[in-house]
């Protein structure tokens, strides 16, 4: 029984392999199907005028990216504070020390 199944499987691939080479050869020898596809393409092109009204929605996709640009400016501020915080913290630390000293100097000068 198993042998029969194996034989059937072996016969199936053999038969399937035979039609496959013939198929591509037929397509190559028969330019008809390729010509039919172009003929069908013009018909979609005729339908394209209908989708053309749908083309404006594509600008809407362009507008969607336009909407993010305002959002893009907002993300930079968060990103800026992150690098700015360490820099500012470091900068404020020395500056803070300098500012009290300058304030002390100014106070001493005022005195």
Automatic annotation (TrEMBL):
Lineage, highest ranks first: Eukaryota, Metazoa, Chordata, Craniata, Vertebrata
* Name this protein carries in UniProt: FYVE, RhoGEF and PH domain-containing protein 1
Question: Coiled coil: which residue ranges?
Answer: none
- What is the primary gene name for this protein? FGD1
Q: Which residue intervals are annotated with compositional bias (Basic and acidic residues) in the record?
A: 19-29
Chain positions covered by the region annotation Disordered: 1-111
Domain of life of the native organism: Eukaryota
What segments bear the compositional bias annotation Pro residues? Answer: 50-59, 66-84
> Low complexity: which segments have biased composition?
93-111
């Amino acid at each position: 029984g198993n042998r029969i199944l194996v034989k059937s499987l072996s016969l199936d691939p053999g038969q399937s392999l035979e039609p496959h080479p013939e198929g591509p050869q037929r397509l190559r020898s028969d330019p008809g199907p390729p010509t039919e596809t172009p003929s069908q393409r013009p018909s979609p092109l005729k339908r394209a005028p209908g989708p053309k009204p749908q083309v404006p929605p594509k600008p809407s996709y362009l507008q969607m990216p336009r909407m993010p640009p305002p959002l893009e400016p907002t993300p930079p501020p968060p990103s800026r504070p992150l690098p700015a915080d360490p820099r500012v913290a470091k900068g404020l630390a020395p500056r803070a020390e300098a500012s009290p000293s300058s304030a002390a100097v100014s106070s001493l000068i005022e005195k």
